[in-house]
Amino acid sequence: MSVSNPVVFVAGARPNFMKVAPMLRAMTAAAAPFARVLVHTGQHYDAAMSDVFFRELGMPAPDVHLNAGSGSHGAQTARVLASFEEYLLSGATRPRGVVVVGDVNSTMACALAAVKLGIPVAHVEAGLRSFDRTMPEEINRLVTDSICDLLLTSERAGEANLTREGIPADRVRFVGNVMIDTLMHQLPTARSLAVPESMGLAPRGYALVTLHRPSNVDEPRRLTALVGLLEQVAARRAVVFPAHPRTHERLERFGLLERLRGNASIHLRDPLGYRENLGLMADAALVLTDSGGIQEETTALGVPCLTLRSNTERPATVTDGTNTLVGDDLDAAWASVLTVLDGSYKRGRTVEGWDGHAADRVARVLIDAWQ
């Protein structure tokens, strides 16, 4: 393996590492003929991003920390771009390529820094579109895909989106979903933790809820209505609600926190680790969420998912999977809950390329392109 001219893998937020981990394992298994460097931009950093977390994912700790920190989108993007450019210029050898994943600010900033220096960039999870430009992630996706040399898609809709945007076909490769690789790798351990049992919950005897998007948690009337929906669900099934810090703060500010705590059928929890959350999700009767990643994970697990958004950048979860978009219509959400509970909710099927081997295909593309 050549130690010069490495390939640099970039991650800025915790979900990014869950996508990078299987790729690093696959590169090692494929005996990739070049060194790999892992850069953590520090876009999202907390104490949970520890040695234990990386050991659980089966990956080494990052080689480089840029310590970008939080802040406004513009300020954060600028800090990541400047710091990553400085890193790329500081080495004794020039990277032969940079790999970015997902759609966070670090994805766009690092792609831009590398491209401006003439370094090839591959974007894993390319082509996803919500067609909602009010979402910062959508802007990051559009910019990143327009400048990258290799666009590695996770579902067939990504290829169609890129073709429509005029991206030449020779820049696009369908590889499948690397996030599902991590799910399959971690699922046996996640189940062994027996998280539902530790909470006194039977398999399929509860609903799991995750909420964090501003459109759902920042406006008092909307969040109050969602709490009402959770109370309806709790009358039929227990509800497990690991509250994102942003959501917890809004619940407290709007006077809803004690209302939830006073309901014995609602288990309000602090955020859970990946394995704990996966174990809960795998045995849930249904999931209510506004998360993109959870739409994918529930489809892979065959668990009914009701997405409290009007759009999704992952349409395969709706067309082939177990996901239903309910948008702002909480009456429609309740109607879907009832179909889950009476057993008439749609059954999903396996999505192409979501087979636990997407990272192997990524490794082959990168080796063929950059060796």
Describe the protein's architecture and organization.
This protein has helices spanning 14-29, 51-57, 73-90, 105-116, 136-147, 156-164, 178-192, 195-198, 214-217, 220-234, 245-253, 257-261, 274-282, 292-301, 316-319, 330-341, 358-370, and strands at residues 2-11, 34-40, 64-65, 97-101, 121-126, 150-153, 172-174, 206-210, 238-242, 266-269, 286-289, 305-307, 323-325. The chain is of the alpha/beta class and 371 residues long. It has two domains: 2-176 and 355-370, Rossmann fold (3-Layer(aba) Sandwich), CATH 3.40.50.2000; 186-341, Rossmann fold. It has a seven-stranded parallel beta sheet with strand order 3-2-1-4-5-6-7, sandwiched between helices. A six-stranded parallel beta sheet has the order 10-9-8-11-12-13, sandwiched between helices. Helix 15 links the parallel strand 12 (305-307) and strand 13 (323-325). Helix 3 (73-90) packs across helix 4 (105-116), helix 4 (105-116) runs parallel beside helix 5 (136-147) and helix 7 (178-192) crosses helix 13 (274-282). The mean pLDDT is 94.
Q: What attributes does this structure have?
A:
single chain; 371 residues; alpha/beta; Rossmann fold; 2 domains; seven-stranded parallel β-sheet; six-stranded parallel β-sheet; 17 helices; globular
Short description:
The chain is of the alpha/beta class and 371 residues long.
Number of domains: 2
Q: Rg, please? A: 21 Å
CATH superfamily of the largest domain: Glycogen Phosphorylase B
Can you tell me the residue ranges where pLDDT is under 50 for at least 5 consecutive residues?
A: none
CATH architecture grouping of the largest domain:
3-Layer(aba) Sandwich
